[in-house]
Amino acid sequence: MTRIVNVSRRTFLKGASAATGGLVLGVSMPVFDAFGQQVAPAQPGRLNTFIQIDPDGTVTVTLHQAEMGQGVQTSLPIIVAEELEADWSKIKVVQADALPVNGMEPAAMGTGGSRSVRVNFEPLSKAGATARQLMIQAAANRWAVPVSECSAKAGVVSHPSGKTETFGNLARGAALLTPPQNVPLKAAADRRIVGKPTIRLDARAHATGAAVFGIDVGMADLLVGTVVQCPIFGGKLKALDPAPAMAIRGVLRVIPKEDYFVVVATGFWPAKKGAAALVPQWEPGPNAKNSTAAIDTAMQAALKKPGAVAVDRGDAKSAAKSVKKTFSATYQVPFLHHATMEPMNATAWVQGDRIEVWAPTQNAGRERYSIAEEFKVRPENVNVHVPYMGGGFGRRIGMAFIRPAIVASQVMNKPVKVIWTRQEDMSHGMMRPCAVSKLTAGLDAAGLPALWDNRLVVPSIAEQLTPNRVMNGIDPISIFGADAPRYNLPNQKLDYAMPQAGVPLGFWRSVPHSYNAFFIESFIDELAREGGKDPLAYRRSLMTAYPRHLAVLERAAREAGWDTPAPAGHGRGIAVHESFGSICAQVVELAMPSPATIKLVKLTAAVDCGVAVNPLGIEAQIEGGMIFALTAAMFGRIDIKDGAAVQKDFDTYRMALMPHVPPVSVHVMEGGTIGGATEPGVPPLAPALANAIVAAGGKRIRKLPMMDEGIGFA
Amino acid sequence: MAFSIKVNGSQHNVDVDGDTPLLWVLRDSLGLTGTKYGCDAGICGACTIHLGGVVTRSCAVAVQDAGDREVITIEALGGTHPLQNAWVEGDVSQCGYCQAGQIMTAAALIANGAKPTDADIDSAMSNICRCGTYNRIRAAIKRASGQV
């Protein structure tokens, strides 16, 4: 339940509120950590988002969700501005710190799971409406007219008599009023900001270089360090002679810890040179012999045995009678790294028992408690500021990139920024797990799957990060998207095994959907072709129970011109997948100048995310998700050799570039419940691409990345 | 060692080792943080500047090799350069981290009234954008060069 409180006369936010004499509403929002777990607030009803209206008319929205490129610091203010009837040009956004002030805590502040708009839409709408009602009430009081005769629009309250007043001029009066309860929200048809394409509020700061990312944090006396972790996951630092680093001008200190060391210097370059000069002795630990081949062997062995049963629906025994033909295929994907453009970093300043951190993190609230616990200080003595993140994609979670800065600041007694080199960043990721799926269908006389069997083998993210979520041998984070394919599959089975990976695993944009969509949508395509059917028509015949999904699929097909023959030599592939509450269908059209090369012609997507808060942002997220997935499908692979990651920079972990990317059109649809936009663009791309290659006369690719299967860009 | 370098029209004296890349002179010595660190290998382009009028990866040029060539960074574009306006109007950025480098690469491409074709854009714009904003970058370059 959303709680909205007038906190105008309480001093709480940095430089804000009471001094200005304006209206400040605090809102109690549902809070999640970045793992997607809803967090019970320490004190129920704690306020974590604030709407402030200053006498100069500025509307400041202080948000607990962090900006990493997904546009949340534009889409959430849009929700507020819509119900507030604000003048959009007066909207400002402030990123909340993790430190509670006067009992108002931004709580877990977890940003992930394409969740921010979904969970905040209703509470922010209510808060905006409440603020608007206070503006109207303040005007009615001033004019001595009934509230019901006044209305607000674009930052101005007006009365039929012709009287008008700006929100700014009403803010002081509104600050003295008690918020009304249950203010009705606008009808969807009356919205004028929600649903309208809106340019990001940070667009200018990004285009000028003025935006402050974590790596840009600056302050007096700031030292800069870099970290070197044991290259072998799970290994320890045995011995380190600091002398070669100390001989480099600018190097101030070498700090050895259990499984890493930090070199602190006057700037990043001497720190990096110092780190490179050292010859650490590592104790390799239990994973010393780990390799891609060893993991693959374990995966294949697991595939041969029944796993834990995650889904068992229908009556396989009686359905078996109608099976005329059995078709089976095995698909595989590798480890992937996030490769955020901004390498991992954090800045810390430890002063006595107080720790102040500037961390580009998706999980500031939880990390604040982790810091307090690990460094043995009281949580109220820890603050985490959240600068812009140069990409997140699920990577910026955990203490690994925060801890070294705190350790270094403790030792140096000064603020220290610790920046990972790209090589360190890439070889110490939290990887998208490798995965294998063996799909088997028993086809009836019409070629439809009377039986569906999916044997899924994926090392478990949950086992490493949130072990409480592993139940009866099932990691739900591994199976989402495979547990309920949106097709008529009356008799289906999913079993699951989770071999050890020996590497850190994490949430990579769209998490299990990134591989489960590839497996299922490739397989469905294969089944269609097995029966000589058009892949769209075949899906139609399997989607009668899923009209919303079918509508999205049909829209993508129509926009891509599916019903007109592709030009000679071109192939079109289609795929559809639901994730994070949204449905996305995509069509890839490509040419194959040779059996080993593709040239993408165009990409088409349709997405139903329920309510399109900012269509311009949704298009950007879906398109961006598709390019993110294109990179992974064509090039993405992290290998493990001697217990360590092999790829260390963009030369071997390649990215899609300008010439690879064809025109992309995204068609935003609105339907039922509100869904996410940041991740749902990722899953359908890889299968649509693989399916297009087959349509163009190429071979069926069942293993990613494409480059390893002999397919490259022309 | 002391080096004198010209950056965005002003002469600066910096005391760093001669092998320090321009990137870190800009960021750590001069506080010009619009130029970003990305890969340390001259690949990603987040650190793109103009050196003596030429598009350059600033992570790959040591201060001792810069000579008297002037360094121009994103900060010199002034905030309302046609490319910066086109970037805003086209809602190009997502995380924004690579965009200063993208704009610096594009600035050379449209200099002197040039109107780059798609092929010109493909061959010049080698910067990585992890968020996948390539199509909006292409459109913004065309807008800024008066082609839209």
**Mass-distribution shape of chain A:** globular
What's the name of the CATH homologous superfamily of the largest domain in chain A?
Aldehyde oxidase/xanthine dehydrogenase, molybdopterin binding domain
Q: Which outline of chain B best applies? A: elongated
Q: Which segments of chain B are poorly predicted (pLDDT under 50) over 5 or more consecutive residues?
A: none
SS summary, helix count of chain A: 18
Main beta sheet of chain A, described? Answer: 7 strands, mixed
Residue-averaged pLDDT of chain A = 94
N-to-C series of helices and strands of chain B? EEHEEEHHHH
The quaternary structure here is: heterodimer
Rg of chain A is 27 Å
Strand pairing plus helix content of chain B: what structural class? Answer: alpha+beta
Report helical residue fraction of chain B.
Answer: 25-40%
CATH hierarchy, class of the largest domain in chain B: Alpha Beta
> What is the CATH third-level topology name of the largest domain in chain A?
Aldehyde Oxidoreductase, domain 4
- N-end to C-end Cα span of chain B: 49 Å
Task: Give the number of domains of chain B.
Answer: 2
Second-tier CATH architecture of the largest domain in chain B = Roll
Q: What's the SSE blueprint?
A:
The complex is a heterodimer of chains A (714) and B (148).
Chain A: E1 3-6, E2 23-28, E3 49-53, E4 59-63, H1 72-84, E5 91-95, H2 116-143, E6 151-153, E7 156-158, E8 164-166, H3 167-174, H4 203-208, E9 223-229, E10 236-239, H5 243-246, E11 251-256, E12 260-265, H6 268-277, E13 281-283, H7 292-303, E14 308-313, H8 316-319, E15 325-333, E16 345-351, E17 354-358, H9 364-374, E18 382-385, H10 403-412, E19 416-419, H11 422-427, E20 435-443, E21 449-457, H12 461-465, H13 476-479, E22 492-497, H14 513-530, H15 535-542, H16 547-559, E23 570-579, E24 582-594, E25 597-608, H17 615-635, E26 640-641, E27 644-645, E28 664-669, H18 685-695, E29 712-713
Parallel strand pairs in A: 4-5, 9-19, 17-18, 21-22, 25-28, 25-29
Antiparallel strand pairs in A: 1-2, 2-3, 3-4, 6-7, 7-8, 9-12, 10-13, 11-12, 14-22, 15-20, 16-17, 16-19, 20-21, 23-24, 24-25, 26-27
Helix pairs in contact in A: 1-2, 2-3, 14-18
Chain B: E1 2-7, E2 10-15, H1 22-29, E3 48-51, E4 54-57, E5 71-72, H2 82-89, H3 99-109, H4 118-124, H5 134-144
Antiparallel strand pairs in B: 1-2, 3-4, 3-5
Helix pairs in contact in B: 2-5
